[in-house]
Amino acid sequence: MTSALQPLVIGIGNLQRGDDGVGYRIAEALLSERPDSYRVFPTHQLMPETAELIAVSSRVLFIDSTIANPCCLPCSSPCLETLQPRPLATSSWSHHCTPPGLLTMAEALYAARPPAWQLLIPSVHYNHGVELSPLTATAAVMAYSLAQAWGCSHA
Hints:
This protein is of the alpha/beta class. It has one domain: HybD-like (Rossmann fold, 3-Layer(aba) Sandwich), CATH 3.40.50.1450. 31% of the residues lie in helices and 23% in strands. It has a five-stranded mixed beta sheet. Helix 1 links the parallel strand 1 (6-12) and strand 2. The longest helix is centred in the last third of the chain and has 19 residues, at 134-152. It is globular, with a radius of gyration of 15 Å. The two termini are 21 Å apart. The model has no long low-confidence stretch (mean pLDDT 86).
């Protein structure tokens, strides 16, 4: 464990599944800036091992895609919401980890409970391919700016 905890941004997604890769792409873009004030972790999926990264962080931001609500289209704004730990389902210890489940693991295993948020980016295309849909590409620009500001703020 480090003595100076830093914020952590976790970008989640599969780059080969269209809009699903948007969280990973944003994390890679943040990482390319070489931020000093926060850490960035792009990942294809959440794993139990990520709980240790969370435990040594001052706060955590998860970035991921979410299926856009057809009633809200053409809304392209990302949504930022506060997360709380939740009881673990039996599948949470395998390849089905969720952000709240990882927060619960960090608290149970490392006695750490950093505040956490998730930045959800509206998405419509999850087929094979590397291109983002126009809706998700627009939302990604806004989400990138939000994540950058979140990482640099002193909250």
